[in-house]
Amino acid sequence: MLEIRVPALKIKQGPDRELFSFSVKGKDIESIAAISRVKRKENELVGYQRPEVSTHIREIKRYLESDNPMIPNALVIAFDDRVKFEPISNGNNEFGYLIIPIAVNDEEKPGWVVDGQQRAAALREAEIGDFQMPVSAFITNDAQEQREQFILVNSTKPLPKGLIYELLPYTETKLAVALQKKRFPAQLLDRLNHGEESPMKGMIKTATNPSGFIKDNSILKLIESSLSEGALYRFRDPETGKGDVDKMLDIICNFWEAVADVFPDAWGVDPKNSRLMHGAGITAMGHLMDAISERYHSEEREDVTSYSHFKADLEQLSKYCKWTNGYWDFGVDKKVKWNELQNIGKDIQILTNYLLRKYRTEVWG
Length: 365
Prior knowledge:
Pfam family, one: DndB
Organism: Shewanella inventionis
Mean pLDDT: 87
Protein name: DGQHR domain-containing protein
Order of helices and strands: EEHEEEHEEEEHEHHHEEHHHHEEH
Strand content: 15-25%
């Protein structure tokens, strides 16, 4: 196999981390590193990069083709162990050469771009001659480590949060506190969106499922709220923030399967045509799930609320719900047309309070 040799500096970071700093011709990048596009393959998450942004690439390309371009920010590339380092001096920081195989097919390239895909694309397309590009690289065969580095590099930049949320369940490294709190809820969301047992399979909009119509953030908020003080709380480990995934999924799936059967006309359609699929409806119904589960847990000491209990209570409540037509009767001078409810705090609170009040007075009470 053909290869290139580039002078490199090996930098030790911690007991087991090695980082390599070097430069390479911009046109050579595409021969040594591919873009790991985030997608689903047989229901498994593969890759981590978002799609290219053509306008951004054109802007970088124009700059590269200007009279005196300079790009000081290094690309970050993850190499597999086909890449070797030959030192020419000893010490914590070693000088030497990286021997990097080159290839035409993405599957045969030894590297993946972790950060800088738009710059890499611009370098590929621009007329730039021998323009040198700085690179920081690490060597690993672990796709999980590549995802973790991708999240750590990009979490402070304007990266789509949905992409980060979808990657989180496939990482284990310690992240910023805000991301740590999202990881377990994101794991449940991932199972809801891709598990065969889930009534929401394929319905949640994510980076790899753009055709979904339920916002991922609405489901995350539902899960986080229930973990904090709802039906999922009793299956949670307060020390780790994790919990019994199977029992939690049983509750969520039992509830939403019952919702789908009680409100068939409002289920599985675009949120424009059903406020049940809307952020306001998802959030309010999440609180109702917690309330119904509380009833049967307290009255019968039931571990996981069954589909039949959820369905029976929802049927009694259904006449008060106006998901696809009519007016919500929130009280005197508070009639709201079904499609005027918005995914804002005020409307969500009004709808939530209404459903819980009706449930406690007309069903449970």
